[in-house]
Structures are given as structure tokens and as C-alpha cells.
Amino acid sequence: MNTCIESAIIPNLEAVKAKQKATWESGDFGQIARTIENAAGEFMARQTLRPGLRVLDVACGTGNLAVIAARHRCIVSGIDIAANLIDQARVRAAGEGLPIEFAEADAEVLPFADDHFDLVVSMFGVMFAPRADLVAAELLRVTRPGGKVALANWTPEGFLGKMFNVFKAHLPAGPAGVPSPMSWGHEPTVRLRLQDFAEVRVARRIALMRYPFPPAETVEFFRRYYGPTQRAFASLDAAAQARLRQDLVDLQTAYNTAEIPYATEVAAEYLEVIAVRR
After folding, report:
1. Which residues contact 45 (CB under 8 A, 6 or more apart)?
2. Spatial separation of the C-alpha atoms in residues 183 and 7, rounded to whole Å
3. Which is it for strands 75-80 and 54-58: parallel, antiparallel or unpaired?
4. Pairwise CA distance, residues 60 & 63, whole Å
5. What beta strand segments (E) does 74-198 contain?
6. Span between the terminal Cα atoms of the chain, in Å
7. Residue 46 burial (C-beta neighbours within 10 Å; 0-12, 13-18, 19+)
8. SS3 of 75, please?
9. Are 68 and 123 contacting, i.e. CB atoms less than 8 angstroms apart?
10. I want to staple 153 with a disulfide (CB 3.0 to 4.6 A). Which of 40, 57, 185, 218 is the partner?
11. Rounded Cα distance, 269 and 162, in Å
């Protein structure tokens, strides 16, 4: 894959980006973010956090990673394209008395100086930006020499990859030229995108996604709160919605490992990527 071409062949790029922003601002991602706080804690526990460390959370959502870094007295910034999620992140940080600088911004054009951060993190975030080559270049640019980028990206083979394929089977093809978000969970592709870093290490990890209701209600939870799911259903007629819903319920049921009735627990694989700046 020539990632330099990825950003050059996207027609109607501004419309694509506007649609993405509207999608992430719909629903209430804060409800979804709570279900992966455990995975965020595990991910950040593997980073070396210390007072005074300059940390950037890219595509921060409601601030799962940023809040953890700030609790360790790091100097933290967070950006996201969704204005309402930045508002939620600010309220959350204020509630804990954490001095985090949140801003509405694009992962492809980070509003920070070169070589500014010791650690740049993103969990299930930058993988959704349409121009992967620009994201990789921006991650490199804002990280200081010797600094580190840490990413968590869903894998194509994991549960979220299978869910992505369910949606793909029911919906029209996505915008031309936009790579699949799951390509950020494909090791050879990630290594190519991050080839200008001195070192790239990857490991497959598991995020346990737990919901206090059965698989069918889990699907409805995502329909209500998760913008991409909400928008996907809204684009279909009633019969097509019913078919999509059934396939999603079947998937959640097949992968449910909860040992108690009326609950859902799914092991979702992601690729943890650690890239060290030269």
C-alpha cells in the first residue's frame, strides 16, 4: 500500500470530513466511552506516566486517556473533531479538578508546535481519520525526538473487525479513496505508515467489553448512543434495518462469554502500537 496516495485520491474530501464530524457528534459517545474505561486503564498502565510529562490524547472523545494521564500529574492536552465530546471532556476534567487543555481540532492538522510532546496517545480514535498518511505525519511531527506514540487500533480479525464486516455487508460502499479504519489494526500497514519512526513495536491485546444487558439490548444500546451505528440504521429502510439488527444480534450472541444471564461480555482484539521518535 502506498500511503502517500491515500490522501490524494479522496473526492469531495471536505464533504467526507463534514459527514464524519456530524456522525461523531450524533448519539452520545460518552455512554459508549464508559464501557471501555477498563481497557483505557489497562492501556495507560503500560505507558510510563510521571509528573510533568507532556501528553497529547488525539481523537480523545470524552477524555478516557487524558484523564488518566492528568491523574498522574502529566501536562495533558486532548483534541477531537466532535465539539460535543470536547464539551463533555471539559466537564469531566473540571469535575475532578484536572487541568487538561481540550480543543476541537483535526487529527490530520494538529494545532501544536513541532517536537512538543513526550507521549502521544490515541485509543480507537485516529484510525477513523480519512487520510492515514497525514495522521502518521502529524503524530511524528508533534512528538519530541526520543518521545513515543502509543495507539490502540481494532484489528480486522477481532470482534470489531467482524462487526465492521456486518455493516459493510448491509451498507453502500464508503467514500472512494478512504482506507478502512481497520487497516490501522493490520501490522504491515501500520509499520509502513510509521516507517519514519526509529522503532515500531506491536502487540495484540484484548479489550473486554461488558454490558449489563443481553445481546439484543446491547445492539439497541449502540443504536441509541453510538453515532456510526445510529447513522447506519438511519440510512436504511425498515426491512433493511431489521436484517442488519438481526445480524448484529447474532454476532453479539455468538461471541458473548458472559457467565451470568442477561449480560453481554465480548473479548475484542486490538493492536497496540508503540512508535519511538528518532
Report:
1. none
2. 15
3. parallel
4. 5
5. 75-80, 101-104, 117-123, 143-154
6. 23
7. exposed
8. strand
9. no
10. 185
11. 11
